[in-house]
Every structure is written in C-alpha cells, then in structure tokens.
Amino acid sequence: MSAHTQTAEKGQNTTLLCQESYVCSGTDEAIFECDECRSLQCQRCEEELHQPERLRHHERTRIRPGHVPHCDYCKGANGNIMHASMTGSRQIAAVRCQVCKINLCVECQKRTHSGGSKRKHPVTMYHAGKAQEREEEEGMDEETKRKKMTEKVVSFLLVDETEEIQVRNEEDFIKKLDCSPDQHLKVVSIFGNTGDGKSHTLNHTFFYGREVFKTSPAQESCTVGVWAAYDPVRKVVVIDTEGLLGATVNLSQRTRLLLKVLAISDLVIYRTRADRLHNDLFKFLGDASEAYLKHFTKELKATTARCGLDVPLSTLGPGVIIFHETVYTKLLGSDHPSEVPEKLIQDRFRKLSCFPEAFSSIHYKGTRTYNPPTDFSGLRRAVEQQLENNTTRSPRQPGVIYKALKVSGEEF
C-alpha cells in the first residue's frame, strides 16, 4: 500500500498532486491552482498549458503550505456556478475523491457521491475550516480581524472573595488564559466603587462590547472576587475586581484582595462615574500606594530576580488612569485650559496629604455622557498608549505573573 493511500485512508490532508497529467502524468506536486482550468497544476503542466495566447491570462493561485483547493463541481464546464457560497464564489473543497480525482465541497459531495457505487469511493479529507478562515481573514480590514480574535475569549475566577487563588498552578493559569507560555504579557486591572460600571468598561475597552465580564442592572454587585481574561489583540491579562463599596462581611479581607491585584498590575484603571472626583478616590490610591511600598516592593523585586528578569526597583509600581465619566458637570481641567488635569490631581493629593509614590504615573481621562452610550474610545487610546510604553514597565511571561500573585498571597 502506498504512503499516499495510507494517508488518504486516515482522512488526513495529503500532498497535493497535479490534476492535469498533461506533462507529468499526475505524479508531480501541484504548485498552482488555476481557477479557470479548474485544476491543480505542477510547474511543468502549468507552463505548457498556458502557452497559448488565449490561456495566458488565466487567474492562477500559488499553492502555499496548508492550501485547500476549490470544489471542482461548484463551477461547471461552461463556467456557470452550479453551487456557490453566500458570497457568490466557489466553495472550498472538503474532500478529494481518490477514484474520480476531483475535489468536492460538502454539498457537492452529497449531491454526487451519496448514492450508487460512488458512495464507496475512498476520499481524502481537507482541513477546509482553517482554509476558509484564512480566506475570510484575507478579505477583512484590520479592525474586523482584531474583533474576530476576541470572539472566543472567556473570563475565569482568578481569586475568590476569601483570597484563595482558583488556579492550581502555572500550567492551569496559562491554560485558562488560552495563550502561549512564552508570550510576554502585561496586566491591566480595574478598580472603583460598586455600580460604577467596571465590568462594562472592560468589555467595551478590550472586547468590543462582548460580555466577557458579567454585568448586571441589579443593585447587588455581580463581580465577587477577582476575574481574569486574556486579550489576544493587545497581549494583556485583563482583571476585573469587586467594587470598593460593595456589601462584605470582611472589609480588610477585600482590601487585601485588591492590593494583591495591584501588586501584579502594570496599569490600573480607576473607574468613577460622578460629577466630581470624590476624596475616597484619592484616599484609596494614597493608602494603596503606602501598602504597596510597605508589603510588596521587596518581595516583588526578589521574585523578578528569581525569574531572571533584569527589572530595576523603580519600574515595579503600576501606572494609573483615572477614568472619570460625568453627566452634568464639565471635565477636570476644562475650566483651566492652561492647566493639565494631571497637575490638578497632584494638587488634590497634596491637599489631602495622600502621596501616591508607588505609582509610576497617574493620568486623567474624562468623558462627558450627554446621551448614552458612554464613549470609551478615549480610554481605549490612553490604555494602548500606556501599554506601548516599555520604559517603566516590561511585559513578562504568564508564569512570572502567576508567581508574583502567589508571592503576594503568601506574604500579605
């Protein structure tokens, strides 16, 4: 039994051979697919067949690794489409009949090989699904491709409300993220009061509005504990946290939980929906900075050293973006065009004797919602700009992120 026949019986895609047999007798590997000849052709057959003037302008596709040919029956001998896809073009083949020596899509196989002796013809299966996806992607614009990449993303519980890590080990963490263990990532987390739309903000900033993180119009917070998801477009671990003012039996436990998230974050979004920035925002960030420097700096530095990362101490603090949504009031700094919002925020910290020294940067991004829905485009641009900056925060492998989370859990 030949290797070609063995592979065919296993139902796997085989090396594509010339279907013309014009020069090579059908033994040479196919190099081109000619749409108008409706066949796969080797180098020699392609050259000989297209020598006549009337055939020189045939549309030919060079066969790449993993190429799947079109269905031979979708287009009849007279060029009319007998069976076509919704786009009006020939379908990608699903199988190749080893007896008839033709490629067939699913519909044409049913129509031509479902009865009689042809039903028993041995066939080779093509991985048509992937080929179809490649063809579709080639016709997509960049934004559509990015959106498609996030279609299968799901979130998972990373740490429960009792501070217990819900992934068994590094391998489990990587598996749930659904990313490569060698992929270098950053971590973006969100903080804010219960009911201010943190989950909704993450869904629209990273996942095109898909409900990766659960949202609810109910009074109770629908985020309990810490949830995570992987954004394959920006290569970041996105973390959703429990609200700061939510009902809890142990306030200190929840505070510790949020600080552990802070310890592994490269960028923190503080989400607030209020007409003015309240003091609790500044006090939380000030207290978080103090706790970070007191409890995590030394251990995180040791962790990065153990993992072989050359990261200086000054880079360990995350950046912060304060995302402020108003309805009736102007955005911060709009009354003082000469003063940037970040300066006004620093002044406010000083007045409250809060010193956010642990954070590598603090930025303000505001949006005024005259009519819903909220515009997240400004926040999205600000996040992407911060993620692109590697001078203070370097991406690292998911295993390192897991170790840092484990260390923060053990030490605090």
TrEMBL record:
A GO MF label: phosphatidylinositol-3-phosphate binding
SUPFAM superfamilies (alphabetical): P-loop containing nucleoside triphosphate hydrolases
Cellular component annotations (GO), alphabetically ordered: lipid droplet
Signal sequence, renumbered to the chain: none
GO BP annotation list: lipid droplet formation
CDD domains in UniProt: Bbox1_ZFYVE1_rpt1, Bbox1_ZFYVE1_rpt2, GBP
Highest taxon, organism lineage: Eukaryota
Name by which UniProt lists this protein: Zinc finger FYVE domain-containing protein 1
Organism: Buceros rhinoceros silvestris
